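User: Round two. Same drill as before: sequence, then structure, for each protein.

Assistant: Same drill it is. First protein:
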Amino acid sequence: MLIGRLKRGDSLIEKLIEFVKDKPSGVIVGLGALESLTVKTYDLSVKKYHEKSIEGPLEVGSFSAIVGKNVEGKMDIHPHIVASDKEFNTYSGHVDRAVVGATFEFFFARSDNEISRYFDKNIGLNLIK
């Protein structure tokens, strides 16, 4: 297991993709705070995402991401989050963009199996093989 921390102002997704580029498949779990967040939920009936942007401060109650090879064969992440604002309204979904607030702490655990994805035209998403 590896442990890491991102600092205020970091682009959460960009920094985590940079972190995993030379790692094996696995899982990232994290918590912390965000200045801003854009989450998406997938609508299978129309095969499109609905998107919502939220301005912080936001508290990350749960973050998890599957680490594996994307359809181009590069290491990538599939990130999901649950975060709340100062009124304790909660938002969850696939993380599109996020900017770290005070801190973001995470650990990476390696998988025994290689994870890779393919595009499933019936679902409209990149799924694990």
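Second protein:
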Amino acid sequence: MRETKVEKDKVKVPYFFIESYLDNMDCDYFKKKIDEGVKESGNKSFTTNVKGGMTTWEYFKKDRKFLETIFPVLDYIDVNFEPPKYYLRDAWGLKEGWGEYTAFHNHGNTGYFSGLIYLNDHDSKLEFPELDKNVIVKKDKLLIFSSFLMHGTKRNVIKESKYAIAFNFDYIN
């Protein structure tokens, strides 16, 4: 190699990160649905960045209770962010038991935003290394963040499983 120049640093780009709580979540309904979904054929358990139980990618995409839960969030985004046109690409459930985790990843540069709704309290933390932020897992907690942000968890070291619904919204055109 000759005259090699290497630069390594992080480029700062605009992002958004919302942390809130949802009211009137029917967590028992969603946990039961996830328990069913991780047993169905075609589930994505241990085949994605979720190194634990996972439903299919589109498992909650047409679920009326999920949509009714997320609509007020979308109304908030529409009013406060003046977003481009977007659509729900996918929405899946996850159940991570002892020793299971979510590998660090992002959802690419083509998505608009990603999010999670936690269905139970858990000792696990969702880490965002680029933001130097760790989010405590709490029942009814909602996270919305720019899809390009790196995130993941360490292995679950307690007996209780962590339940969540994850989703992605992409730009239209």
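The mean pLDDT is 92.

User: Perfect.
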